[in-house]
Amino acid sequence: MRNINVRGVLAAAALVAAMGLAPAFAQGTNATSEGPANRGGTTQNAVTGPANAANPTASAVSEEQLFQQLDKLSGRVSIPDGKAAILQQPQGRDYRGFREGILPWVGGIFVLGMILALAAFYFTRGRIKLEHSEESGRKILRFNAFERFTHWMTAMSFIVLAISGLNYIFGKRLLMPIIGPDAFAAWSQYAKYAHNFLSWPFMIGLLFMILVWIKDNIPDRTDVTWIKQGGGLVGQGHPPARRFNAGQKVIFWSVVLGGLALSVSGVIMMFPFSVADINGMQISQYVHATVGVILIAIMIAHIYIGSLGMEGAYDAMGSGEVDLAWARTHHSLWVEEEQAKTASGPQVRTRPAPAE
After folding, report:
1. How far are the Cα atoms of 79, 89, 160, 260, 290 from residue 278, in angstroms, in the given order?
2. Where would I find the H helices in the chain?
3. Which of 30, 118, 136, 301 has its CA 20 to 30 A from that of 15?
4. What are the tens digits of pLDDT across the range 238-261?
5. Which of 147, 109, 122, 136 has its CA nearest to residue 303?
């Protein structure tokens, strides 16, 4: 009897406990399957929520709204340079679009277009030959030693600047897939060093060129005649010209004006935030890159005319002396001026006859 009573008491206690826990368990189940946040009654709804549930990020401010209201995205920095806090600004997006989209097309059109145009000219017109006459074999001094030094210092510096600059535009598209990222990174680093350091002899040479040749590159009426007659490049005959013809004057002023633009914009970028903020340096990038590819195309034409395109032209910057017949053909007015300096024409000397 005593055992029965004990078992009866334990059974009653278990029944009471079960009746107390059942409502709590039922409430927890309803909160999961049919609660306010998930009234579908299924496990899937408990995980994903219904389609019309509230989006917790709907009221968050978008990046575009920040751009429109603040004109830039910035954070907080503990270093003294507060400019480092700027993360993005709209002009940076514009420059990135120019750098990655427009600039490669501009560079390709100007550089490749010039190469193709010169190739077409060469295969149709051919090399401009030296016209021999009774003055052939005699030499006249065209450029002295300092002028040749100025030319070659500026020219060699520009060639390195052009190659390293084109690497900036086309390197990762054309060169990196061939040599690999590691070699391309090393090459680009040294190309950047060369670009920075050789910009100084280029600017010095540019200054020398202005001082030495500006007086001979002032446009005059003979340039109009030269242009009308095609400069001897097309048609028959060669129009009269002074020391520099109209085509050479175009080259000179292109180098002077383009070189000055490259120098100013390059120095601004070489010393960041010294005279311009981030927007000013981005404008310098626009100028530097655009003027650079245009000047490269012009210099390709200049190199062609001075070497492959015209016989006898290279001697002017090689030895400094040119054949008198060549000078008379292409710069007849200049020859007359030089020979008129003295009655004997001291500029002209006869080349020794070769031994037989």
Report:
1. 18, 9, 27, 21, 18
2. 2-33, 43-48, 63-70, 90-97, 103-125, 145-170, 176-179, 181-213, 221-228, 246-270, 278-306, 315-318, 324-330, 332-339
3. 30
4. 889 999 999 999 999 999 999 999
5. 122
In the structure, what pLDDT confidence band is assigned to residue 131 with cuts at 50, 70 and 90? confident
- Indicate the pTM of the whole model: 0.74
**In this structure, which amino acid lies at residue 5?**
N
> Tokens 């540019």 map to which residue?
206
Question: 48 CB contacts (<8 Å, ≥6 apart)?
Answer: none
CA distance 241 to 333: 5
Positive or negative: CA dihedral 121, 257, 279, 162 = positive
Q: Maximum CA pair distance of the chain?
A: 157
Polymer length of the chain:
356
Residue 164, judged by CB atoms within 10 A of its CB (0-12, 13-18, 19+), counts as buried
Question: How far is 74 from 70, CA to CA, in rounded Å?
Answer: 9
- The average pLDDT across 313-342 equals 89
| DSSP codes, 162-203 | HHHHHHHHHIIIIIHHHH-HHHHHHHHHHHHHHHHHHHHHHH
CA-based nearest residue to 304, from 233, 245, 226: 233
Give 156-185 pLDDT, tens digit per residue. Answer: 999 999 999 999 999 999 999 999 999 999
Q: How far, in Å, CA of 79 to CA of 311, rounded? A: 63
The torsion defined by the Cα of 281, 284, 289 and 292, in degrees rounded to 10, comes to -140
Structure tokens belonging to residue 46: 């408990």
DSSP per residue, 312-339? TSTHHHHTSEEEHHHHHHH-HHHHHHHH
Inter-CA distances, 97 with 62, 101, 104, 290, Å: 21, 5, 11, 14
| Helix, coil or strand: residue 10 | helix
Q: How far is CA 131 from CA 54, 227, 316, 323, in A?
A: 88, 21, 16, 10
d(CA 206, CA 226): 26
| Residue 82 reports pLDDT greater than 90 | no
66 vs 90 pLDDT, higher one:
90
How far is residue 59 CA from its own chain's centroid?
42
